[in-house]
Amino acid sequence: MIFLNNNPPEESIDKLLSDARNDDEILAVLLYGSHARNENNAQSDVDLCLVLTPATFAQEYLSEKKLFFLTNHPFDIQIFQQLPLYIRTRLLKEGKILYCRDENTLYEVAFTHIREYADYEHIYREYLEEVSRG
Predict the structure, then answer these.
(1) Which of 71, 74, 82, 97 suits a disulfide with 1, CB 3.0-4.6 Å?
(2) What confidence tens digit (pLDDT) does each residue in 93-119 have?
(3) Dihedrals φ, ψ of 29, to 5°?
(4) In the chain, what are the domains?
(5) Measured in Å, how far apart are the chain's first and last C-alpha atoms?
(6) How high is the mean pLDDT of the chain?
(7) Distances (CA, A) of 28 to 54, 88, 111, 131, 134
(8) Is the entire prediction scored with pTM above 0.85?
């Protein structure tokens, strides 16, 4: 979706945030990508990530929640728990919090992710090294 002045209509963001507030499973909404880095242009989409409360959700359920938000809002929406570790790491570094139900719980989610990534990072680095060698 292309927006005038490279920015999404404020009422669209407000509607999404209202839907997020009304969904008890959504812990936070993060803006990431070119809009978060202030590098957006006329072709840039708006990347949003829904962070769900710590719980075990079936992948099908997560996909249904994502589909609901995608069909009701003009943004590129992802579910944090469905993203690969390295993308979650980038999102935590560059993302901007638009809504947070509970900062302590969001901190716990981030801390848990950081521990998971620390266990995985050496494998990821070795993989990147092998790919760069061809």
Answers:
(1) 74
(2) 899 999 999 999 999 999 888 887 667
(3) -125, 125
(4) 10-133 (3.30.460.10)
(5) 36
(6) 87
(7) 11, 14, 15, 35, 39
(8) no
